[in-house]
Write a structure and sequence with these properties.
- It is a single chain.
- With 119 residues, the protein is mainly beta.
- The protein is 0% helix and 42% strand.
- The protein is built from no helices and eight strands.
- A four-stranded antiparallel sheet has the order 1-2-3-4, with no helix packed on it.
- A hairpin with a 3-residue loop joins strand 5 and strand 6.
- It is globular and about 40 Å long.
- The N and C termini lie far apart (37 Å).
């Protein structure tokens, strides 16, 4: 998420990631949940795991398309997940083995709702 693919040996500040309340990581991508309930993603994106609507590599953090009011995030190897405040679960990325949980094996470049928890 620092704008290049050179190796860095130490902690760095990720530009554009402010007010993060939690972070999550997949195999080669990262996610940050911001205090305003939005999600940023960066890193490898060959399976759409960034949720940005493309498979372009994420050299810098970019918003996950269409997600707001998020309270939790998780990163799988090549897919990502989020839980919204209303209890709905959203997933995006690789779905070759049903990773997204939407009943298909169709991958998604943007979040799709896969479940909703109820009280």
């Amino acid at each position: 998420g620092i704008g290049h693919t050179n190796t860095v040996s130490g902690a760095v500040t990720i530009a554009g990631v402010t007010d993060a309340v939690t972070v999550a990581a997949g195999a080669d991508h990262s996610l940050a949940l911001l205090a305003d309930g939005t999600v940023l993603a960066w890193g490898r994106n060959d399976r759409g795991q960034l949720g940005t609507g493309t498979t372009d590599v994420g050299l810098v953090p970019a918003p996950v398309v269409g997600l707001d009011d998020v309270v939790a995030i998780a990163g799988g190897a090549t897919h990502s997940l989020a839980v919204k405040a209303d209890g709905s679960v959203w997933a995006w990325g690789d779905n070759a083995l049903g990773n997204l949980g939407d009943g298909t094996t169709v991958s998604s470049l943007v979040p799709v709702q896969v479940a909703r928890f109820s009280d």
